Amino acid sequence: MDQLELFELPNPCIGVCESNQRGYCKGCLRSREERFNWHLKPAAERARILKLLAQRRARLQQKANAGSQPEPQPGSLDLF
Fold this sequence. Notes:
This protein is mostly helical. The chain has helices at 32-35, 43-68.
């Protein structure tokens, strides 16, 4: 039995509708299939997609943080 949702699950669209090289929207990180008929998808499917989006955002943030870390200088000790 499906859990009763007390609140409507939000549409993650932020109005930046452009696909990246992998086919994900640059604004909301959904695939074309995930974007298609969002309002008609069952709540369980929308919840699954929202979890996937959180994982994608976390991976992008990790990549961004890794790219902004300064390279250690030769001969220096990187203790932190």
